[in-house]
Amino acid sequence: MIVVTGAAGFIASCLVSRLNQDNFNDIVVVDNFSVAKKEDNLKGKKIKEFVDRENFFEWLDNNYEEVEFVFHLGARTDTTEFNKDVFDLLNLNYSKKMWNACAEYQIPMVYASSAATYGSGSLGYDDNEATIPLLKPLNPYGDSKNDFDKWALEQTAKPFFWTGLKFFNVYGPNEYHKARMASVIFHTYNQIKEKGSMTLFRSHNPDYADGEQMRDFVYVKDVVEVCVFLMHHRKNSGIYNLGSGEARTFMALALNTFEAMGVPADIDFMDTPESIRDTYQYFTEANMSKLRSIGYNKPFYTLEEGVKDYVQNYLLPGKYY
């Protein structure tokens, strides 16, 4: 059996589909299933068992001998939430419990970290584990992810294989439920569909023109491909970046969305809200050489390829992955 936590969410539900494609059908999905807004993400998928996250560790104590792998992707991901207790409960303490259980039962695991751990990027975007204790995230979400990365590296009891993945700006199908935390591409598509135009944040940094703020946008199909690779690889434990490796501008993202929709580009700008202006990242780009060095050699979707696939094959027809 393969366990996937946060399974009704964005990335994890895509991973379940990807595993099904390779005929991994004995999948145990873990989530807070009282949140009905995400239920469509798991429709039609081959699943062995649904386990509520509150009951998971009791379930694992009774079933660990049958568990082959754990993907711990469940987390609170709201970067605008500033209640540290929420993140301590779900992102830090629950993850520690998952790690300890996988270490005790020697179950290999992959868990979700985040590029939010890099903060302003003043120390760069290299997944060098020696720099992790020096990183200064810009919000409690980033803190919670970095706190767990630091804790994991300090442990003497470990799963026999483990990997933390620093997800950069992931976009793609199955994020319909994420509201304001959905990708910019999702919001761009909906704005264009509703108004025929798109509004981007104005730059408040003299080094960047309006719309030229840059992010490493990574397509969710690449993310799950890396997860499947690691499930089979099971060596070279550690913390790895997971982005496309190429920063692109928000302007390029918007223009590609207009093109994929067959709509003339119409872009204007609004001031970045003051509540996030001081913590706004103007540039992120994953150094992907570490993952490449352990044998992951598949090409990543370009922004053009990913946006076209997402818009034309999922958003326009309203489909799930």
Automatic annotation (TrEMBL):
InterPro entries: Epimerase_deHydtase, Heptose_epim, NAD(P)-bd_dom_sf. Coiled coil: none annotated. NADP(+) binds at F10, I11, D31, N32, K38, R53, L73, G74, A75, R76, T77, K145, V170, K178. Its cofactor is NADP(+). Keywords: Carbohydrate metabolism, Isomerase, NADP. The active site is at Y141 (proton acceptor), K178 (proton acceptor). It comes from the Bacteria. One of its GO terms (biological process) is ADP-L-glycero-beta-D-manno-heptose biosynthetic process. The keyword Cell wall biogenesis/degradation does not apply. Residues 2-243 form the NAD-dependent epimerase/dehydratase domain. Pathway: Nucleotide-sugar biosynthesis; ADP-L-glycero-beta-D-manno-heptose biosynthesis; ADP-L-glycero-beta-D-manno-heptose from D-glycero-beta-D-manno-heptose 7-phosphate: step 4/4. The keyword Isomerase applies. Substrate binds at N169, R180, H187, F201, R202, S203, H204, R215, Y280. It catalyses: ADP-D-glycero-beta-D-manno-heptose = ADP-L-glycero-beta-D-manno-heptose. Homopentamer. Belongs to the NAD(P)-dependent epimerase/dehydratase family. HldD subfamily. Contains a large N-terminal NADP-binding domain, and a smaller C-terminal substrate-binding domain. This is ADP-L-glycero-D-manno-heptose-6-epimerase. It comes from Pontibacter oryzae. The lineage of its organism: Bacteria, Pseudomonadati, Bacteroidota, Cytophagia, Cytophagales.
